[in-house]
Amino acid sequence: MVHKYLIFSPREITHLPGYINPSLLTKSITAFELITAVMWRCRTIALDYKVNTKVRLIFTINARGRWKSALPIPHGYYRNALVYTIVETTVGDLCGSPLVRTIELIHKAKADMSLERMRSTLDMMALLRGRPTLPTQHVYWVSDIGHIGDDTVDFGWAEWVGGGMPVPKLSSFHTRCKDRHGEESITVSMLLPGSVMDKFANEIASWLNKDNGDLLMF
After folding, report:
1. What are 61's strand-pairing partners?
2. What is the CATH number of domain 2-214?
3. Which has the minimum average pLDDT: 17-26, 60-69, 179-188?
């Protein structure tokens, strides 16, 4: 297994919506949704699953968002308050349909997350504590941690500089950085077998209209 970090510059993030017909969207797209949809698709192709295999995308939602007033989060609690949601489809649907189809599946998963479902998820996680973890085969886990902490929390010590890069394990992480041109960019981690990583890089390069060697990947 090898891990890599892929940098999406503002130019690349602007390039990707060109694959989407905006008239087919029910709402606007975030950079996280767009990059996640492309990464999930390229990763699935690289892993060479059978076309009828069910694959899942699991990503985090900030529980402090639309449910903030209804959640019993103690005042002054600054740690994570996240809930997971799942998108499920087949390899054939994910890799054979237009990208907008995947984006809409992500939008639906977000819209379906209610306060009642969030509480049900927490109850299930409590029941599973100490038991074997959920199966991870055919699953792509991803979290956006680009806005956790950084310069939005003032501890009164000094100006925030950075917190380092997370080592990719089970999940991929979206973080923020500056690219070689000094532009604010998004870095996404990925963990795959070495031979699969090469195929994944080729797939990503084709989406970005680049050669593999031109990818900002380290």
Report:
1. 83
2. 3.30.559.10
3. 60-69
Contact criterion met (CB below 8 Å) for 172 and 188? yes
pLDDT at 86 over 80: yes
Q: What residue spans define the domains of the chain?
A: 2-214
User: Packing angle between helix 194-207 and helix 31-47, nearest 10 degrees?
Assistant: 130
Structure tokens at 10: 């503002």
- Longest Cα–Cα distance of the chain, Å, equals 54
The predicted structure's pLDDT at residue 39: 96
- Predicted TM-score (pTM) of the model is 0.86
> DSSP string spanning the chain?
-EEEEEEE-HHHHHHGGGGS-GGG-SS---HHHHHHHHHHHHHHHHHT--TT-EEEEEEEEETTSTTGGGS-PPTT--S--EEEEEEEEEHHHHHHS-HHHHHHHHHHHHHH--HHHHHHHHHHHHHHTTSPPPP-TTEEEEEE-TTSSGGGS--SSS------PPPPSSEEEEEEEE-TTS-EEEEEEEEE-HHHHHHHHHHHHHHTT--GGGS-B-
